[in-house]
Design goal:
This protein has about 190 residues and is mostly helical. It is built from nine helices and two strands. Strand 1 and strand 2 form a beta hairpin. Helix 2 packs across helix 3. It is globular and about 40 Å long. The N and C termini lie far apart (about 85 Å).
Length: about 190
């Protein structure tokens, strides 16, 4: 009997800031071992967060699961001349085949379309789908100028302007900071 629960559809994703920081460090000097302490040091976070990033780098094929060493793909990824090929190789390795078939990287898929795919097919919430879509586009574009510009083709949210409201003036003030009871404020004209 087949398992009624389908396999989880996802793509390992990290923020573009982490992506570019790790790539820059690999580019500067390829580490002998990518462990939690190394990632924690270069990213300035806790080792528990570094463990999550390490697992994602493994899932992308950039770090060997058994040895913790960067893979040949990581060496391609850090080099500007082979960056685009490496990004597309990461997609082939880590992205769902159905997603790659529906929206090949060469077609320059739109952010909202990819986000909707993750929401519907992977049953992700808004934020997870947006993160996955942003990362898919980062890899699909494989554009080194994004490091300075930010990920292209992502929609920017426009903030709804807040209307300033005047707070009502209190009719009483605390008698003492440690007491919760208040005493009425007597207007100066009645004193």
């Amino acid at each position: 009997m087949a398992d009624p629960t389908p396999a989880k559809i996802s793509i390992p994703h990290i923020s573009s800031g982490v992506w570019w920081t790790v790539r820059q460090r690999f580019n500067r000097s390829m580490p002998g071992n990518v462990d939690n302490a190394y990632l924690s040091s270069i990213l300035g976070g806790k080792e528990s967060s570094a463990r999550v990033y390490r697992n994602k780098l493994i899932s992308m094929g950039l770090v060997d699961r058994d040895t913790g060493k960067p893979t040949p793909l990581a060496n391609k990824w850090r080099d500007d001349d082979s960056y685009q090929a490496a990004c597309h190789e990461i997609l082939d390795y880590a992205a769902p085949k159905e997603l790659l078939s529906a929206f090949p990287p060469t077609d320059q898929p739109e952010f909202e379309t990819i986000k909707r795919w993750f929401k519907n097919k992977a049953e992700m919430g808004e934020n997870a789908a947006a993160s996955s879509a942003s990362f898919y586009i980062l890899l699909a574009d494989a554009d080194l100028t994004q490091k300075e510009e930010g990920t292209k083709r992502t929609t920017t949210k426009t903030a709804t302007p807040k209307v300033a409201t005047k707070k009502p003036t209190p009719q009483s003030k605390p008698r003492h900071p440690h007491l919760s009871k208040t005493v009425p404020v007597i207007p100066a004209a009645l004193n």
